[in-house]
Design a protein that fits this description.
CATH topology of the largest domain: Glycosyltransferase
Strand content: 15-25%
Radius of gyration: 25 Å
Helix content: 25-40%
């Protein structure tokens, strides 16, 4: 089993009608060392085997055995449990595309055989309905998740087809999609799924098969939304199900955050293939609403536990935030597609912010535990829920798995395919969007191009790109200047050059390159305070701390004895200092000057203003760690936003 030369990664826009940039073949972008290589190795050696064990323990694999008639028993877990198996299979597919692994292949072979055995003769495949209600297939599109699960199966099949050269999943998937087309195509029923996902999967399947039925079906599912027909879930209504407004008329992100973002991702995929400006205009309006009024500083999305939903404008509480990991990953997917269409750095900027903070805060550093929700403040005691599994008031924790386990395999597939998102090519040259030690290969006018990247990012801002193979004609090497960067230098072969930053936000150097040429872009990485929009009343008067792409937080583990983070303030007139420290595997910490308010515990909650004396305070040194690393030493109090002295 070997993939075809030049096989694509998760998105293949090589034949799309609307794209400024083209994705590289999956094997053409390989992370070779540093920060992300470490995460990929942990994902490979720990997370993926752990995921297989959890799928067995939770009953997901047994469900498929029962559906296949190999065992007798009752269905276990949520009715969409099959999707966790498919996401795990997708992750393994991309991982095997990076390098062979007999142990992972054996696990995947077992799972694939169960999927094959469970499929019915007419192509239908869903273990929940096959076990619990075989006569009720396709009777609950609002809540049943049948098309949602099918979407994840399609994506797994594509990963194995492209990265491994194995079409077992693709063969059975095409039978299932034929069945779905017969049921819901132009001559079939006019419903759509209560949980978007299949839309982006069908567009990608079209990119594999070039079968126009797959693209047409994706458009039908998108076009059918907005009729206020769906009943909602547990009383949430059509907004929750993304059925409250036609997609082209939408101006605000609303409802269930993951549903919203999977829908916009699929719609943006459709823009790439059909070049519909009205649909793209709606995507731009939704992105503006999300980034200007509903985005956390970590890139997290979804401020309400109720409905796992977006809140209103500027409704961004730190302690009761939901910030589901899957929503952050959906944001990566959407921003990647917007970047491919436009070539604008703002989408790569949000991708970076979300990846390093909103996504990476989920997995434990050991690779076998995950957060479902990602708060920006945790108070001492039992005040924040860790996931949908825990009742209100449960102590936050990072469990090994979840009853609703959508997030862990989503993290796994993101890490195993991460090289796909580093760079793109165009007729003009090569574009570098995310920074990691890597090897990149491309073709320009039929001639090979290879570069190697060395960097200590995200701890160090130096990014060195060395040309190893180059066409004989001039081409442009473009490197993103991150939104957080206030100062940088650029040199070629050791000589400083004046940078040219294009309108999209990239440094562009266009020349005839020779093997051995090196371009070095060096971003100044200094800790900086970040202020919120004053309309975000939950953190008005507070500041956050950031260095490079990393948002920092204060954890009670690291503070001086007697420091309560509820009473701490930072002194923003004194510059924070960054120091490497052998903490949590070797991270960069930041020291901040602060003050500690000595407030008695007996102080009343409220009193007249003229009776409130200023609280005495004393200087303290506060230590901050990267937000992604919090909660790895047991759960204590933590906060990202902290009052500044002048605002207390």
């Amino acid at each position: 089993m070997t993939p075809a030369p030049g096989s694509a990664g998760p998105v293949d826009n090589s034949q799309s009608v609307r794209s400024a940039l083209a994705t590289l073949p999956f094997s053409a972008a390989q992370i070779t060392g540093g920060f992300w290589a470490n995460y990929q190795q942990i994902n490979r050696s720990v997370s993926l085997p752990h995921g297989f064990a959890m799928l067995e323990q939770a009953g997901n694999l047994r469900n498929l055995r029962i559906a296949a008639g190999l065992e007798v028993g009752e269905f276990a877990g949520f009715w969409f449990a099959d999707s966790d198996v498919y996401k795990w299979l997708e992750a393994v597919g991309w991982e095997l595309g990076r390098a062979a692994d007999e142990s992972l292949l054996a696990m995947a072979d077992e799972a694939i055989a169960l999927v094959e055995a469970a499929q019915l003769a007419d192509g239908y495949l869903n273990s929940y309905y096959q076990i619990t209600a075989p006569d009720k297939r396709w009777t609950d599109l609002d809540h049943g998740h049948e098309l949602y699960c099918a979407g994840h199966l399609i994506q797994a099949a594509i990963a194995w087809h492209r990265a491994v050269g194995d079409d077992r999943l693709l063969t059975l998937t095409l039978r299932f999609v034929d069945h779905i087309y017969d049921m819901f195509g132009p001559a079939g029923r006019t419903e759509t799924c209560g949980h978007p996902e299949i839309e982006m999967a069908l567009v990608e399947l079209f990119r594999v098969t070039r079968d126009s039925r797959h693209l047409d079906l994706a458009q039908l599912f998108i076009d059918r939304r907005g009729g206020n027909r769906m009943s909602g879930h547990a009383g949430y209504g059509p907004v929750y199900q993304q059925d409250h407004v036609p997609v082209r008329q939408a101006t605000e992100v609303a409802g269930h955050a993951v549903r919203q973002l999977y829908l916009t991702t699929g719609a943006t995929d459709l823009v790439m293939e059909r070049d519909e400006q009205a649909l793209f205009d709606a995507m731009l309006a939704l992105w503006a609403d999300m980034t200007e009024r509903k985005l956390y500083v970590t890139g997290g999305l979804g401020s309400r536990f109720d409905g796992e939903a977006f809140g209103g404008p500027y409704e961004l509480p730190s302690d009761t935030v939901y910030g589901e990991t899957c929503a952050a990953i959906a944001s990566l997917m959407w921003n990647w597609r917007l970047l491919l269409i436009t070539g604008e750095a703002r989408y790569a900027d949000l991708f970076e912010r979300t990846l390093y903070n909103g996504v990476l805060s989920s997995p434990g550093l050991e690779g076998a535990s995950y957060l479902y929700v990602n708060p920006l403040q945790v108070r001492a005691g039992r005040y924040v829920r860790a996931s949908t599994d825990s009742s209100s008031g449960a102590e936050i924790r990072r469990p090994a798995w979840h009853n609703c386990a959508c997030c862990p395999p989503n993290v796994m597939r993101t890490l195993s395919s991460l090289g796909h998102y580093l760079a793109t090519s165009s007729e003009d040259g090569l574009q570098l969007h995310q920074f990691a030690a890597a090897r990149l290969d491309a073709q320009l006018s039929g001639q090979p191009l290879r570069v190697e990247i060395e960097t200590g990012y995200p701890w160090d801002g130096r990014v060195a790109v060395t040309v190893r193979e180059s066409p004989a004609t001039p081409w442009a090497l473009s490197m993103r200047v991150p939104e957080w960067c206030q100062q940088f230098t650029l040199s070629a072969n050791g000589d400083a050059i004046a940078p040219l930053v294009n309108a999209g936000g990239y440094v562009v150097v266009n020349r005839t390159w020779q093997p051995g040429d090196q371009l070095v872009l060096d971003f100044a990485m200094e800790p900086m305070f970040v202020a919120p929009n004053p309309r975000i009343d939950a953190v008005r008067g507070c500041v956050a701390l950031q260095r490079g792409p990393l948002v920092y937080c204060f954890e009670s583990h690291d503070q001086q004895a007697g420091v309560d983070l509820l009473d701490a303030q930072v002194v923003t007139t004194e510059l924070p200092t960054a120091n490497p420290y052998d903490l949590l595997g070797g991270i960069m910490t930041i020291h901040v000057a602060g003050r500690m308010s000595d407030r008695p515990n007996s102080e009343p909650l409220y009193r007249p203003l003229d009776e409130a004396p200023p609280a005495a305070s004393r200087p303290v040194d506060l230590l901050a760690i990267p937000y992604f690393a919090w909660g790895n030493r047991g759960m204590q109090s933590m906060r990202v936003w902290i009052p500044q002295v002048s605002a207390w």
